[in-house]
Prior knowledge:
Blueprint: E1 2-5, H1 11-24, H2 36-42, E2 48-53, E3 56-65, E4 75-82, H3 91-105, E5 110-115, H4 120-128, E6 132-143, E7 146-156
Parallel strand pairs: 4-5
Antiparallel strand pairs: 1-2, 2-3, 3-4, 5-7, 6-7
Amino acid sequence: xxxxxxxxxxxxxxxxxxxxxxxxxxxxxxxxxxxxxxxxxxxxxxxxxxxxxxxxxxxxxxxxxxxxxxxxxxxxxxxxxxxxxxxxxxxxxxxxxxxxxxxxxxxxxxxxxxxxxxxxxxxxxxxxxxxxxxxxxxxxxxxxxxxxxxxxxxxxxxxxxxx
Length: 163
């Protein structure tokens, strides 16, 4: 497996993996994959990575800003999606390692994730990668008419933003 920067030409496979995540009902509040242009605007340009094996994209990870306010300039939200046929193979760990390295190189001191309680594999991945549980937002939003909780996880860099 190799990791490389995500390119616009990857969108076809990246969006298919995103659709697989949406279909689980516990990966995101999104109900459909946005057009590439919308997704591109919502995610940071520097921190996007894909995992590839034999020219096949297995999964992807990217960061999005948490706020437009300058005080949150070093804080980003994590997205990690693994193709259905590639889950349980360590792809998420490799993507997260790369994303953390890229985020620190870009000056981010905090990464955060909002995870549905049912998404136990994502919770385990985040905990293995040094994220800590910081709280739960109960009934924070609806998905298909059902109120959903969201667990907040955070990882503070030991290299960036440290005095």
